[in-house]
Amino acid sequence: MSRHRFLKNMTDDDLEDFDEQDLQDDDGSADFDDEVYDVYDAVVDDTPDITYEEIEEILIDHDYSVDDAIDFILENYENKKSKKKGGKQQPQKPSNNNNNKQQANKQPTKVRRTRSARSTKKEKLLENNNSNNNDNNTEDEEVDSLNKENNDDNINNNKNINKKNNIYKPSLLAVDLSTITKNLSKINIDDKEFSFQSLYKNNLDNDENVNAINNTLKTMSIGGNSKAKPVESKTPYNTPIGTPINDKNIPNSPVDRVDPNLINNNNNNNTTTTTTTVNKNLNVKQHTINRNKELEEMVHKSFASSDNKPHLNMVVIGHVDAGKSTTMGHILFKLGNVDKRTMSKFEHESNRMGKSSFHFAWVLDEHDEERERGVTMDVCVRYFETPHRKITLLDAPGHRDFIPNMISGTTQADVAVLLINANEFEAGFSGEGQTKEHALLAKSLGIMELIVAVNKMDMIEWNKERYDYIVDTIKNFLVSAKFNEKNIRFVPISGYTGENLVDRKDPRLTKWYNGSTLVDYIDSFSVGERLINKPFRMNVSDVYKSSTKGYVSVGGKIEAGLLGVGDKVLISPGSEVCSIKHIRRNNNESEWAVGGDNVDLSLVVENPALLRVGVILSDPEKPIPLSKRFIAQIVTFTLPIPMTNGYQAVFHAHSMEEPATITRLVSLLDSNGGVSKKNPRCVSDTCTAVVEIQLGRLSCLELYNDYRQLGRFTLRESGKTIAAGLITEFIDKKKKE
């Protein structure tokens, strides 16, 4: 996932501790526009100390006008010379030979650098080592380390890995963290669980907030008795429309309709079985009782504050070229998250590449390949605020080749915005388009509330009849996909011109539309309650280089639980405990984070290779189960061939994917969730069935009734989504017996 949050969103305080060498290592090259070199050649004789970076800044201020930049530089230089009158001897003008020598020494080369700063440092160390055999062993070790790093760099280059992605490469870490982790004290935690059900009610004044906190605290079990029976969760998952937690609430979607008879009554036993080896080898607690109380007080105080805005994770989905990145980039610009100077630079660079209409998209699409192709390839994360909400924006790719990345982004979201291209609606809505598949995936992955933004209305002259046709067609499809019609809202927009994003002025629109703008609709998204009173779970969707030396940074969404700086968490698979050094919560430094938060964590870990996309961080005392064989309830979409025993597909859950085999067809279910046929020979399109699935290896999974988001999955084959499902029972132990 394209986060690099510590690099993109660093404050001045962050930059003080950030190693500049890391930036050089990530880039490894320097290149400027031709205008920079033209200006440099014109002014270098008069201003020999000027740098390319200074020239680029001046060009940006003068809209890349070479003549204006030259005049500005020379004029300012003459002014500086005139101020030096005071008896100081003027420097003698050097000869032509001296001039040439000076330029040869000071003028940077225009050719892109091919040798990184790391390579230069390596050569210097080798030279010093050869000249003095009595040097310290420390220097020898650094040379060996750098040799290894450069060999790894060559391997990565051969694999066409882009260094600019800022993705952490385990083989490049040359820091031994074992001494750090050995000195960390053991941390304990009690079994106390709590809920913030009372803190999310709207329109509470200050006195009512205080009373709500006091009542909640009174109901808590403050004692540290680890043998006490834990309180069962009564708060729905953090989605706008809470998924059901008892038999009285009947889900809308067949994929959410779990047959109670399929649920194993001994789920806790199964969970314990799959994690027994982990628990036997570990005697580690996430945090102490006192630390837990301290974190609870911080969370209560924050949520009860009148300045607190509810937080939402919002994914933007839709067919390729629907205008997702352009629309979101324009919103960020209009809301002040991107300054005019940066947009001017993007506009100039996009014009130079012949993609003048893509400058708003470049706010999110920052990789060279994405900009050259004009296609989003990875999920990009940004942040903005509306009057009543704090939004984590997840911009998902629309191209069918990058559907796995779209799934990874959607699993982290609470709500979604579906972009429709009004000018080419039929292409995206057809069988080969991605509009339907994205909508089905969103519903299958737990998205209950949806905004449908009909984009590029300016290209059809804001035609109301065309808009109404698109709205009716999409609405019928979404209702058939089991979206609640009350939770779907439609809005006409133009992402490129900015019309009806934050405000609207075009009379062609205002004469027939008087509804809300897109940002107004985003601001009115429902906010669910946090899943805090369960053991800690976090889905790792990004691993990258930390801004602090010696640490590894991971990003993702906390699905449940409470986390604080200094806590110890378990990496699964891998069964290694790591420590939390820093927390960046919803793009802000924080001492804590809770279920529903989008976070970046700096970790102290002995074996960084264990950290990869798809792993789960969990409570060491109550770790996530590992399973490779389970019973699931699925809903099929369009199958290439009927599903039979032995059917193979790719299994996607949270941020992981794994080859899977349908080992047994248990039963077919009717529209009410009852069994219509046992042991069927095959399963066809648009059917609900119970099946047994086996994965290629042990994976981090949960039962749907325990952790809804970690118990959902999709099945894909040949680049298409063929089914979605819910895990109802682990059967690894039964098969062994």
From TrEMBL:
Pfam families: GTP-eEF1A_C (PF22594), GTP_EFTU (PF00009). It comes from Dictyostelium purpureum (Slime mold). GO terms for biological process: translation. Belongs to the TRAFAC class translation factor GTPase superfamily. Classic translation factor GTPase family. EF-Tu/EF-1A subfamily. Signal peptide: none annotated. Residues 88-108, 127-136, 153-163 have a biased composition (Low complexity). The keyword Transport does not apply. Residues 109-119 have a biased composition (Basic residues). InterPro entries: GTP-eEF1A_C, P-loop_NTPase, T_Tr_GTP-bd_dom, TRAFAC_GTPase_members, Transl_B-barrel_sf, Transl_elong_EF1A/Init_IF2_C. This is Tr-type G domain-containing protein. Residues 309-532 form the Tr-type G domain. It is found in: Cytoplasm. Keywords: Cytoplasm, GTP-binding, Nucleotide-binding. Residues 12-35 have a biased composition (Acidic residues).
